[in-house]
Specification:
four-stranded mixed β-sheet; six-stranded mixed beta barrel
């Protein structure tokens, strides 16, 4: 993890929905810093600079917030984003100090292409670890390049940097490389599952036509058999 980006924060003195809207109209973000037994600290952050810092720092971005002349390291914990405009509406941070160990969920990035006729399933997209606040891994990379079906990658096989301790179960399944199911097998499995649930479908035009053809063939076969019996008499 690179050095935390420094951002000048303003102390927030006005609260409520109206005040929050005014802050956002000025392209700024309301935020709260929790932790270390202190009262929550309410601040206002510059919108664009903060957004870029979070984008660069990843899910566990660490920022150095300058508040009234003092520095506070703040670990990102919750980002509220407007679902339509996709802008940050509010941020929650946890106050940390240099050298302090913190518990975080680090994303898993799967890279590479597994062997032919395989399906790669990312069973867990994050893994819980303990790391120094200033040395949190941005992500863990897992390569599946050329791996055959049946390969399973567990949490204990992750390449953790020095100073990072795995907190998740060592046997936690991270990536599962399975045999790719054919379209026919998938359809058969779906039909079986629907039958178990009692789901019925109206026959398609193709199925109706096929059934009619089979019925005509059976009738023709029966007629042929009847004629043969008559001749023998």
């Amino acid at each position: 993890m690179s050095a935390p980006e420094k951002i000048a924060a303003e102390a927030r003195t006005e609260f409520g929905k109206g005040a929050a809207r005014r802050i956002r109209r000025d392209n700024k973000i309301p935020a709260v810093i929790y932790g270390h037994g202190n009262e929550p600290v309410h601040v206002i952050l510059p919108g664009h600079q903060t957004m870029m810092a979070l984008k660069h720092g990843g899910a566990n971005a660490l920022l150095s917030l300058e508040i009234d002349g003092s520095e506070q390291l703040a670990l990102t914990k919750d980002v509220q984003v407007d679902p339509i405009r996709r802008v940050i509406e509010h941020l929650d941070f946890v106050a940390v100090i240099r050298g302090e160990k913190v518990t975080v969920d680090v994303p898993i990035h799967v890279v590479g292409e597994a062997g032919p006729d395989t399906l790669v399933v990312n069973e867990n997209t994050v893994v819980s670890v303990e790391a120094e606040a200033t040395h949190i891994p941005e992500f863990f990379e897992v390569s599946v390049e050329g791996l055959p079906a049946g390969t399973q990658i567990l949490a204990k096989e992750l390449d953790l940097p020095s100073g990072t301790t795995l907190l998740a179960d060592e046997e936690l399944l991270i990536v599962n490389v399975t045999e790719q199911m054919s379209a026919e097998a998938l359809e058969a499995e779906l039909e079986e599952a629907e039958a178990d649930l009692g789901i019925e479908h109206d026959p398609s035009d193709e199925e109706i036509a096929e059934a009619q053809t089979e019925a005509k063939a059976e009738d023709a076969a029966q007629e042929s058999g009847s004629e043969g019996d008559s001749d023998s008499e």
